[in-house]
Protein: DUF4227 family protein
Organism: Salibacterium salarium
Amino acid sequence: MMIVKQWLSYSLETIKIFMVFCVCLGVFYYGIIWLSENYKGDERLRFSDTDAEKVQHSVHSLIY
């Protein structure tokens, strides 16, 4: 009888820990999605229209 009580107690604790883990994981996941949506409109993260950008300085001007 004592072994069954211990087993039930451990099972209940395992289920509690699993539920806390799932809640924390869900909050983290939706937090990341929320941050991602907020930063989509940030002008600093906009990409250029072309694949390459023109180099403004030559190598010699950077050295001297």
